[in-house]
Amino acid sequence: MEDKRNIQIIEWEHLDKKKFYVFGVCMTMIIRVSVYPFTLIRTRLQVQKGKSLYNGTFDAFVKILRTEGAAGFYRGFLVNTFTLISGQCYVTTYELTRKYVSKYSSSNTVKSLVAGGSASLVAQSITVPIDVVSQHLMMQRKGESMGRFRVHATDGKQPVMFGQTKDIILQIFRADGFRGFYRGYVASLLTYIPNSAVWWPFYHLYAEQLSRLSPNDCPHLLLQAIAGPLAAATASTITNPMDVIRARVQVEGKSSIINTFRQLMAEEGPWGLTKGLSARIISSTPSTIVIVVGYETLKKLSLRPELVDSRHW
């Protein structure tokens, strides 16, 4: 096992893969249910013109709850659950890439940087079509839409469940063809590859520095639970401008990242690049704690039996 200043790192070869994937899917679903409302709020804040609908994260939360009910926070959630597949591809790519890079470098920062970026590239290739559909569903407000497409009512009633999804998919295909499902793909890569590549090195950096400053008997899991949100806040702040552009490209149907950036700057100035940042950080803090604690616990639960017996964790 790799031990960086008392922070033990369980690598891919130490895991029972069957346990790892089963526990991983369950953990990921719990996380998604808990943070999805703030994902929806963040997307709506990023897409709206100025403060035309919401004045901020709290205002958006109150207004959505009042006008759409609790169910309004979960528009597009069922579609979004298909990203569980990309989530498992992400962790697999991350761990395998770390293992490969370790042949050429023993630096934990280098391994995390390369593995995080590679994992995000693979995951986004699967996730973008799901994100495009789910984001258009997020834009469906009561009786209207904030995006290009609007779910059509049938006999005065809104189609439910996957009826709405089918409606949006057909509208995207009619308007843009198959390419419409990969609208904003480059913007997504420019958002999430740097986000992932930055998060992992900062996470290990903060964990190592906290380990140096903390008493020897301080639990490693506590240090990791603090380091995770710090890394998430850092990565979110760095990559939020591109995340705003990504959301607008995908929801508004724009084809150019540069033109979207110019329009945003002309309409709202540099402040527009910070839209949704607070919601992003708020959602990332509890979710990152759960992810870090859960992921580290997941890896310990998935240790091969002989390693559990041979060493205390």
From TrEMBL:
GO MF term set: branched-chain amino acid transmembrane transporter activity
UniProt-listed SUPFAM superfamilies: Mitochondrial carrier
Solcar repeats (start-end): 18-100, 107-209, 219-301
TM spans (from-to): 20-41
Keywords: Membrane, Transmembrane, Transmembrane helix, Transport
UniProt main location, coarse: membrane
Membrane topology summary: Multi-pass membrane protein
GO cellular component assignments: membrane; mitochondrion
PROSITE patterns hit by this protein: SOLCAR
Domain of life: Eukaryota
InterPro entries reported for this sequence: MCP_dom_sf, MCP_transmembrane, SLC25A44
Keyword Transport annotated: yes
One of the protein's GO biological processes: branched-chain amino acid transport
Compartments it resides in: Membrane
Descriptive protein name: MGC79800 protein
Organism field: Xenopus tropicalis
Lineage per the UniProt record: Eukaryota, Metazoa, Chordata, Craniata, Vertebrata
Gene behind this protein: slc25a44
